[in-house]
Amino acid sequence: MPDQLLFAIEVTLNGLMAGVLYALVALGFVLIFKASGIFNYAQGVMALFAALTLVGIMDGQVPFASLINAVFGTEIHTFGWQVPAIIAIVLTLVVMCILAWCVQRFVMRHLVNQEPIILFMATIGLAYFMEGFGDLMWGADIKKLDVGLPQGINDTIDQVTYGWFGYGFFIDNLDIVATVIAAILVIGLMIFSQYSKQGRALRAVADDHQAALSVGISLNYIWVLVWSIAGFVALVAGIMWGTKSGVQFSLSLIALKALPVLMLGGFTSIPGAIVGGLIIGVGEKLFEFLIGPMVGGATENWFAYVLALLFLVFRPQGLFGEKIIERV
Amino acid sequence: MKDTVEGHVTADGRTIGGMLMEMRNITLRFGGVVAIKDISFDILEGEIRAIIGPNGAGKSSMLNVISGFYHPQEGDVYFRGEKRPPMRPYQVARMGIARTFQNIALFEGMSVLDNIMTGRLTHMNSGIMAQALWWGKAQKEETENREVIEKVIDFLEIQAIRKTPVGRLPYGLKKRVELGRALAAEPKLLLLDEPMAGMNVEEKEDMSRFILDVNDEFGTTIALIEHDMGVVMDLSDRVVVMDYGKKIGDGTPDEVRNNQQVIDAYLGVSHD
């Protein structure tokens, strides 16, 4: 096989794996949007907050250390212990559930039946609040996150493909792990929403609030549940991106990459988020590989948005979204 | 009046038992508008109780008070002899009061089967972890629930459309699925908000038959709102008549039919 083609295949594979990570972030958006009609601008910041909390707990950082030190004139920064990753992840999950409850109790509950744009504005506020709150709680410095996921080039794949084609594929171990975890998460979520009582209640609430109430579903409970699940997805995304590029503010910007994914996949479709993520991931890598050199490179910065724009013009409901029918 | 009705056996052999629900001096206002004015009536176990009245009489408001969607400013609701504290609609549903809506509130994106399944939610008690892991109690519950659901589907003769998304069904069938969802909850009290609204004659006959059969076979107490006088008189054991938020009649269909106030409200009175 010619080297060019092999290289293209490698680029595609890498694109698929980047796409999985985009899909993971987009999934958080879809979950909340489906159940409550809220476009949660804070999803990216939730990933950042989850990652910050995870690192903080693992390193035994004292929360609000700078605040405590400023008020009491003390010099405490850490408890001096290390928490194993698995326990820290569980604790972070608990924090995300508490956060979900607070969001529902103190923000969303007061905005029931408001216009979508108002709910959207509220989540923008929420994003800024959580960003500042995360900084205050854990400090603003860039942190290294290592929960023990394998990293670096996968040697086996490199050698095997070299043996076959005389060309070794460079695939990052972390990308492989991320793909597997994301796949498990997505399948798990789909089974949960399809077959469990809570999943059925969740779909019911997404469909019709009044009818849901009449069959004994508490809307508040379902919304807390949804925000908790979105928090869980944010945590997984935060771990993956955090391990890859460190836990820092720019982590919250991955939310912007999820937007084109949503426009492609549709805001209401879980499979759509996955396929959209993969298309954007592969698309931008292949575009950069094939067209990039002709236009001076750096196409990855804008490719996804242009694609999303085209979709908005020609298929506004996305690939899998519910068809928009206006009845007159 | 009450004493003669309570605990009796009807001509067609159904037993009508003690007091299931009692509304005492209910008044409901929206701002300055009085939707319900000082209304009291009761619902006995096993009976079919109708609430009728012209447009805007406050019938739907009354049903919404019973099902917890509206909260009256004055008056109390008694359920099985106990005063019911103000409740959210989902709490009322969990007490065993199921309802349908005038303009159908189904989960349009879900299949008929899934819609009816949601009616069983109040009977599922297994925790979220058991659900997620499909373990122990969760599995047993699902089997039990399936049985009830199959019974409901058989009963309403909707086997053929069980997998169809509800959004694609014609109006009459949607009404039937909504009834099915309410029945799946095995309610102690079934509230029907204009079950025959917008139906043709044939669909109306079907629906009447289902309502009678539900009451007869499952012994379910039914309170229904209807516009169509003829249908109501054939179906119900007792009728409450409302007009402009006030109760103007209460009794058996025959008594109500001969009540002068009711005749005036329905036919209009000449004021000359």
Brief summary:
Chain A is mostly helical. Chain A has helices spanning 3-36, 43-58, 65-72, 85-107, 116-138, 155-165, 173-195, 197-207, 209-214, 219-245, 254-265, 270-290, 292-295, 303-314.
Q: Can you describe this structure?
A:
The complex is a heterodimer of chains A (328) and B (272). Chain A is mainly alpha-helical. Chain A is built from 14 helices and no strands. The longest helix of chain A has 34 residues, at 3-36. Chain A is globular. Helix content of chain B is 38%, strand content 23%. Chain B contains eleven helices and ten strands. Chain B has helices at residues 2-5, 59-66, 89-94, 112-118, 128-133, 137-155, 171-184, 201-218, 229-235, 253-257, 260-267, and strands at 19-30, 33-44, 48-52, 74-79, 82-83, 97-99, 189-193, 221-226, 238-243, 246-251.
Separation, N- and C-terminal Cα atoms of chain B = 35 Å
Low-confidence stretches of chain B: none
CATH level-3 fold name of the domain at 2-96 and 187-267 in chain B: Rossmann fold
Query: What's the total number of strands of chain B?
Result: 10
Indicate the percent of residues in helices of chain A. over 70%
Biggest chain-to-chain interface with counts: A-B, 25 and 32 residues
> What is the number of helical segments of chain A per DSSP (H or I, 4+ residues)?
14
Mean pLDDT of chain A: 87
Write the CATH architecture name of chain A: Orthogonal Bundle
Give the oligomeric state of the chains in this entry, treating copies of one chain as homo and distinct chains as hetero.
heterodimer
- Could you give a short account of the major beta sheet of chain A? none
